[in-house]
TrEMBL record:
Metal-binding in keyword set: no
Domain of life: Archaea
Organism name: Halovenus carboxidivorans
Function: Involved in taxis signal transduction.
Protein name per UniProt: Taxis protein CheF
Keywords attached to this entry: Chemotaxis
GO terms, biological process: chemotaxis
Quaternary context: Interacts with chemotaxis (Che) proteins as well as flagella accessory (Fla) proteins.
Length: 287
């Protein structure tokens, strides 16, 4: 292992050679192995060793159930390596996937436009370089102007890929919607080397998939959601949408149940007790 190569994970697991030379292996079986992941390559060690540079690996986003053995495993990662596909599983499935994304993306430099859109309003942000760091729950970025921000992996709303001019070239751009530290909806644009963007897209897509839902909201509920999206204070929704406070509270409860909104802080509605009225009366009498 070279001085620049860093070990990220060394664990026991299983692998199945699902496709070899472009041909499905219908008699393939799971084989116990040692799995070593570094920032440069993946190694699968049995009696022999398979060593593959990370840049030759694509993570597939669908299952490759070539036979019952493959289908019997609830969770595995399918790796496309040229004309071969290897299935890998470990005891900590999510941990391995995060580490695999880390191996490729940590410290990668990409182009970032943040924020590109805030509350539905396009901003005049410029493209600049940013450095990535992946954790179990977040994608963290530090931009060249010193700005830092986080995309929570479970806080991704919509995500699209488009072609835009970036640094004088037509490049693939990930457009990802999330919230900032104040809870305002923002969109961030990400671009760079095709390999990095392809892997980053898959990482973010996993978060977006968890949050996709086909919801049947009423027109009023949709107006409330759009008002919140555009930055209207939750306490000003009644006046903004034109409905009474009680109805707003009912809609909030319904949207919380549907996992469309979440409670950040509860405001207490209070009234004076007899003791409180006495204190207030005495204070007014002293004025």
């Amino acid at each position: 292992m070279s001085n620049t190569e860093k070990k990220i994970e060394d664990t026991q697991g299983k692998y199945l050679h699902a496709i070899k030379g472009g041909r499905e292996l219908t008699d393939a079986e799971w084989e116990n192995c040692r799995i070593v992941l570094t920032n440069q390559r993946l190694m699968i060690v049995t009696d022999s060793k398979i060593s593959v540079p990370l840049e030759e690996i694509d993570v597939l986003d669908e299952r490759v159930d070539v036979n019952r053995n493959a289908a019997s495993e609830s969770y595995y990662t399918a790796l496309d390596i040229g004309d071969d596909v290897l299935l890998i599983t470990t005891a900590d499935f999510e941990g391995f996937r995060t580490n695999f994304f880390r191996a490729i993306l940590d410290e990668a430099v990409i182009y970032v436009k943040h924020p590109a859109i805030v509350g539905g309003v396009v901003k005049a942000s410029e493209w600049q370089r940013g450095r990535l760091k992946v954790t179990k729950d977040t994608v963290r970025m530090v931009l060249e102007d010193g700005q830092k921000f986080i995309i929570e992996r479970d806080d991704i709303g919509e995500m699209e890929v488009d072609e835009r001019e970036v640094a004088g070239e037509e490049r693939g751009v990930i457009e990802v919607e999330h919230t900032d530290e104040e809870g305002t909806s923002v969109e961030t644009y990400l671009s760079g080397r095709q390999y990095h963007i392809s892997v980053l897209k898959q990482l973010l897509e996993e978060g977006a998939e968890r949050n996709r839902a086909d919801l049947d909201l009423t027109a009023t509920e949709q107006r409330v959601v759009m008002a919140l999206y555009s930055g209207v204070s939750p306490f000003a929704i009644s006046d903004f949408v034109g409905i009474d406070v009680e109805r707003v509270e009912e809609i909030y409860d319904e949207l919380i149940e549907l996992d469309v909104i979440r409670v950040v802080r509860e405001r207490k509605e209070v009234s004076l007790t007899p003791q409180g009225r006495k204190v207030a009366g005495e204070a007014m009498g002293e004025q």
